[in-house]
């Protein structure tokens, strides 16, 4: 069997399989394989060696990977009437996000930071909110400037369920992808640098009363955008990903109109930090 491509998002494999089934009446195989480059099991889509339409399938694969979120692929999966496909898309939030079970096997650093943020947020809910925020906020005066944990710890506390879920979802997905595809060291460096830089910038514009992983998350999104664009690593980003980042920044400036205030300085500085870190990474290749 010849591997056409592998993906950590199993929905991609299902969409492509069902699209090819509908267009060519050909059944492709989805199965596990060992990715020697990454060193772990992946899900991949396979076809018989030397199949008569192999060249066409390679061409279809190229088009698909350029724009996997094109509606024609998802539509093919629904029209195929495949129970597994339909259940996978409708059953859980995991399927809605297009995450395969391999996404749940995150690296230790991704898990640790996610678990730490979750533990802190649970303590906030349980009545320790004021104590925690007082302990982790960015340095507010000269005396606190020697408490070096504060330059990073502000990123670990969150102020609302939506704030918490949004930041941790993106961190879990793309922070985990960085750790798996590259290394925990690169993720750790990006985490510390972006937390410090976004904290310094946000403090300059708004003072020390800001919290959340947003600056780090925007740095991670900027980082994967650059590495994916220059083919340093493949993160299967949807078309319009860069536009989504711009819109996210723009919404941050518009949100005060509806009574929501965001750390726009942290978002922008974090994004720039990730973009620059990604460009530096590419040049080291």
Structure description:
With 285 residues, this protein is mainly alpha-helical. The chain is 62% helix and 7% strand. It contains twelve helices and three strands. It has helices at 10-24, 54-66, 71-79, 83-90, 93-96, 108-136, 150-153, 161-181, 184-206, 214-229, 241-254, 264-283, and strands at 2-7, 29-35, 40-47. The chain has a three-stranded antiparallel beta sheet with strand order 1-3-2. A hairpin with a 4-residue loop joins β2 and β3. α1 (10-24) crosses α3, α6 runs antiparallel to α8 and α8 (161-181) packs antiparallel against α9 (184-206). The longest helix has 29 residues, at 108-136. The chain is elongated. The model is unreliable at 81-103 (pLDDT under 50). Its EC number is 3.4.21.105.
Distance between the termini: 32 Å
Q: What is the H/E order?
A: EHEEHHHHHHHHHHH
In total, how many beta strands? Answer: 3
Largest sheet: 3 strands, antiparallel
Radius of gyration from the alpha-carbon trace, in angstroms: 21 Å
Which structural class is indicated by helix and strand composition?
mainly alpha
Strand order of the largest sheet: 1-3-2
State the helical fraction. 55-70%
What is the overall shape? elongated
Low-pLDDT residue spans: 81-103
Mean pLDDT: 82
Roughly what fraction of the amino acids lie in strands?
Answer: 5-15%
The tally of helices reads 12
């Amino acid at each position: 069997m010849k591997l056409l491509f592998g993906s950590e998002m199993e929905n991609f494999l299902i969409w492509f399989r069902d699209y090819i089934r509908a267009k060519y009446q050909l059944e492709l195989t989805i199965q596990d394989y060992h990715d020697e480059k990454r060193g772990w099991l992946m899900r991949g889509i396979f076809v018989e060696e030397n199949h008569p339409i192999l060249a066409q399938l390679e061409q279809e694969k190229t088009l698909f990977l350029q724009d996997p979120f094109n509606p024609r692929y998802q539509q093919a999966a629904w029209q195929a009437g495949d129970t597994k496909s339909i259940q996978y898309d409708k059953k859980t939030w995991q399927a809605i996000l297009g995450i395969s079970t391999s996404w749940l096997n995150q690296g230790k650093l991704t898990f640790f930071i996610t678990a730490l943020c979750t533990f802190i947020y649970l303590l906030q809910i349980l009545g320790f909110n004021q104590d925690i925020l007082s302990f982790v906020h960015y340095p507010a005066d000269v005396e606190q400037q020697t408490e070096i944990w504060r330059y990073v710890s502000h990123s670990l506390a969150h102020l609302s369920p939506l704030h918490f879920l949004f930041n941790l979802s993106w961190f879990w997905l793309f922070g985990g992808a960085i750790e798996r595809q590259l290394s925990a060291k690169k993720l750790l460096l990006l985490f510390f640098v972006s937390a410090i830089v976004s904290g310094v910038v946000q403090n300059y514009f708004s003072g020390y009363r800001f919290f959340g992983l947003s600056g780090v998350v925007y740095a991670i999104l900027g980082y994967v955008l650059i590495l994916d664009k220059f083919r340093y690593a493949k993160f299967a980003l949807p078309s319009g990903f860069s536009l989504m980042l711009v819109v996210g920044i723009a919404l941050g400036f518009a949100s005060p109109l509806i009574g929501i205030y965001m750390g726009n300085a942290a978002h922008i500085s974090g994004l720039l930090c990730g973009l620059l870190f990604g460009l530096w990474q590419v040049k080291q290749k």
